[in-house]
Design a protein that fits this description.
The chain is of the alpha/beta class and 427 residues long. The chain folds into three domains: 7-132, Rossmann fold; 136-217 and 289-359 and 391-424, Dihydrodipicolinate Reductase, domain 2, CATH 3.30.360; 223-280, no CATH class. It contains 14 helices and 15 strands. It has helices at 16-26, 42-52, 63-68, 85-94, 109-122, 136-147, 164-172, 185-188, 191-201, 267-274, 332-338, 368-380, 392-411, 417-424, and strands at 7-12, 32-38, 58-60, 75-78, 98-101, 126-128, 153-162, 205-213, 293-300, 305-311, 315-323, 326-331, 342-346, 352-355, 415-416. The strands form two sheets. It has a nine-stranded mixed sheet. Strand 4, helix 4 (85-94) and strand 5 form a beta-alpha-beta unit. Helix 1 (16-26) packs parallel to helix 2 and helix 9 (191-201) crosses helix 13 (392-411). The longest helix has 20 residues, at 392-411. The relative contact order is 0.17. The model has no long low-confidence stretch (mean pLDDT 95). Bound molecules: nicotinamide-adenine-dinucleotide. The site of nicotinamide-adenine-dinucleotide has 24 residues, from helix 1. Residues 12-17, 38-41, 44, 62-63, 79-82, 84, 102-103, 129, 131, 257, 365 line the site of nicotinamide-adenine-dinucleotide.
Length: 427
């Protein structure tokens, strides 16, 4: 598709993600026009309308209503919750839309592969919101690897620290706590990492094993006397890291993404809401099945090997890439200890190249949201859909790794990814 002068955007699902994309797109009126959105919530549609800065903006009460119309935009943003992505994305593709599709592509690998097939059959393009690819940080790491300065990549170690409060908010109390109703943790949180790693290594992962589970967020770890809800008066409330009453204190910002009246409600109203909402529950007494730690051990077609660890009990991402000529260290620990973002150390001379990144403060994800919207128009104009930076075709790789890792974790087996793909592909 050659994009028109201005790319017309519409959205199914007006939550935090669509709001971020609309806000960023509205700042570039030469590239984008926001024309319509669908959501069950009138309040969210009103916010989407305000962000669109378009008096002709059209509102629809759900996916069925917007898709019943003739095609009214060039690109449909699919930003409902994980479990709806496949249905909404398939229907929008069939209606003639190209897509900006929130990750995960779907909650299971069979649907991921089916969507890839459907998009190919219909000749549509799908850009998956793997926003880290658009961050100045990872673009710099990619450029260093591609420059050859590290030599041949032999191995890597990567870590994603979810951070304890974030784990509790999203994966113990929140939308992704019950894997069976959402997506396995390794996909929900870490498909960005499996995407970035296969992009940096520039080779397909051919086989992997994985281990992990829930070590901390379980009933046996509950402090003595802790009630089912923090709002019921917990004896350790004053010292508990996860006290839900922090939502009216130092963690108020987190309410914005789950409670529409976060900015206007009084503390008493918020506490009354917490007394009934999933976010008021004791983190040791939830129905969570999402793991709080998991490791992956991977082999790539190039012969390189690497490990990835997701843990609730660290913060931010760390990366070490070991090449035949030099090693690269990057991320949170480097930033905290060395005062720069990336270090490249030459094996022969031990010369250190210390690199600082100018982070884009617009949007979240280290500038990834802003980078994605900045590049979206150009990506849609690329001659081949699969060459888009985070095309569906490329993004399937990260989901294949993630879903195979979950199966490997549950079965204790080492899996061959070509076999997993073949087993779950429809004829
Ligand atoms: N790319 C990233 O880094 C990133 C970060 C966070 C979340 N996500 C993903 O983005 C997606 C959206 O997240 P969010 O936080 O914006 O979610 P959200 O729950 O805030 O918003 C989803 C919206 O979809 C609406 N909706 C549900 N069914 C609908 C239907 N049939 N028709 C129209 N609207 C419908 C809901 O009313 C809700 O407003 C999730 O899948 C999440 O995993 C991606």
């Amino acid at each position: 598709m050659v994009p028109p002068q201005r790319l017309r955007l519409a959205a199914i699902g007006c939550g935090s993600r669509t709001f971020i994309y609309f806000e960023l797109a509205a700042k570039q009126p030469d590239l984008y026009e926001i024309v319509a959105a669908a959501d069950h919530s009138p309040a969210r549609l009103a916010k989407a309308r305000a962000l669109s800065q378009n008096p002709a903006f059209r509102e629809f009460h759900d996916d069925g209503a917007i898709l019943a119309e003739p095609k009214l935009a060039d690109l449909m943003i699919i930003a409902t919750q994980d479990a709806f992505h496949f249905a909404h994305a398939s229907a929008a593709l069939r209606r003639g839309y190209d897509l900006l599709l929130e990750k995960p592509i779907s909650t299971n690998l069979r649907d991921v592969l089916a969507l890839e097939k459907l998009a190919a059959e219909l000749g549509r393009r799908v850009l998956v919101c793997h926003v880290l690819r658009y961050t100045p940080f990872y673009r710099k790491v990619k450029a260093i690897v591609a420059s050859g300065v590290l030599g041949q990549i032999v191995s890597f170690e990567a870590t994603e620290g979810v951070e304890p409060w974030h784990q509790a908010h999203s994966f113990v109390r929140g939308h992704w706590a019950v894997t069976e109703k959402a997506t396995p943790m390794i996909i929900a949180k870490s498909c960005h990492d499996t995407d970035i790693l296969s992009w940096l290594i520039d080779s397909r992962c051919v086989s992997l094993s994985s281990f992990g589970g829930i070590l901390h967020f379980r009933a046996e770890q509950a402090p003595a006397g802790a009630p089912a809800r923090c709002t019921d008066g917990c004896p350790v409330g004053d010292t508990c890291l996860y006290n839900a009453l922090r939502y009216v204190g130092d963690r108020k910002g987190w309410l914005d993404i789950i409670f529409d009246r976060a900015k206007t409600a009084t503390d008493a109203e918020i506490i009354a809401w917490l007394a009934k909402s999933p976010w008021g529950r004791c983190v040791y007494r939830c129905d969570n099945t999402a793991v709080d730690h998991q490791t992956l051990n991977m082999v790539f077609a190039s012969g390189a090997t690497g490990t990835f660890t997701m843990t609730a009990f660290s913060e931010g991402r760390d990366l070490a890439i070991f090449g035949t000529k030099a090693r690269l260290l990057a991320g949170e620990r480097v930033k905290r200890t060395a005062g720069c973002d990336i270090i490249v150390e030459d094996h022969a001379t031990h010369a250190l190249d210390r690199i600082k990144i100018d982070f884009d403060k617009d949007g979240w994800h280290g500038g990834g949201d802003a980078g994605l919207i900045r590049m979206l128009h150009g990506e849609m104009g690329k001659p081949r859909a699969e060459d888009m930076e985070s095309s569906l075709q490329r993004s399937v790789e990260s989901h294949l790794i993630g879903f195979a890792a979950e199966e490997a974790r549950q079965t204790g087996m080492t899996l061959n990814l070509a076999e997993v793909r073949a087993r779950l592909s429809s004829p």
